[in-house]
Amino acid sequence: xxxxxxxxxxxxxxxDLIGGLRERGLSINYSEGSHTTIIGxxxxxxxxxxxDLEALEIVEKVRRVSEPYKLANRKFHTDDTVVRVGxxxxxxxxxxxxxxxxxxxxxEQVVEAARRVKAAGASFLRGGAFKPRxxxxxxxxxxxxGIELLLIAKKETGLPIVSELTSxxxxxxxxxxxxxxxxxxxxxxxxxLTELGHCDKPILLKRGLSSTLEELLMSAEYIMSGGNQNVIxxxxxxxxxxxxxxxxxxxxxxxxxxxxxxxxxxxxxxxxTGIASLVEPLSKTAxxxxxxxxxxxVHPTPQKALCDGAQSLTPDQFDKVMEQVKVLCKxxxxxx
Length: 336
Known about the structure:
Elements: E1 2-5, H1 11-23, E2 27-32, E3 37-42, H2 50-54, E4 59-63, E5 83-85, E6 88-90, E7 96-100, H3 107-120, E8 124-126, H4 144-157, E9 161-164, E10 179-182, H5 190-196, E11 203-206, H6 213-225, E12 231-235, H7 253-260, E13 265-267, H8 269-273, H9 279-289, E14 293-297, H10 315-332
Parallel strand pairs: 7-8, 7-14, 8-9, 9-10, 10-11, 11-12, 12-13
Antiparallel strand pairs: 1-3, 1-4, 2-3, 5-6
């Protein structure tokens, strides 16, 4: 249930209303936007009479919310959430680009990648230290050493780093990681989501391979219900009957999510298809569809990559993609 307050509502009466609602065992989400102030009620609202609330002089209207996700719901928070990390941001008029190798392989590799993606205009460095792989024989990352190498690249370039957490057992190693990524395979790891709700870092939440948008938003709700409101959603392609690409990019998810939630939405064109030549057209499509950012795999020498070389761009290719992205962002009123 949401309560829309009248403009210039008496602050003391608003505080009295909130206090009374809390006494009924309800959690309160207070959102003061540029034009509208909303009180969102989370909990058992069956015994709350909307007509009683609408009779209050400070209340404009009351609406029940049918969707199971409340905190992530745009009805609860009409203005776009902006997730800030240092000087970079996702959401609102801000467009963030995360780029770097799928897996951290060496200091030379990750530092070179960091320097090149920063020069091209990326605002974050991505790199996998822990890699969940389908095959137990595939390269599964350098683990703690990989985190250390990412921190070296961060020191060299100043870029905030994004890396995937695959197990809560490794959470302590992510103390200096700026954005924790929850991969597609862990989107419904509810113990992990609950724990990340108590941390003070932004969470980049990737859509599961076969997950609906409601399931994605409910996973975000797990994090937000713990108190962490800094969630970035990522459309990274879903599994369909099509075999020409690794996954199928659900581009319609971007504008639809922008209607359903106030959280920033970014697109991963690399995992969406697994084909490097498709990254540029899909990146441009994502900007026009209204995305708040991109996450792109870039490797100094993709043909030698230990993981996902076929979908990784060379630094020169990434330069060309960023040239196009910058033009489109300007046309769409987005700031890189």
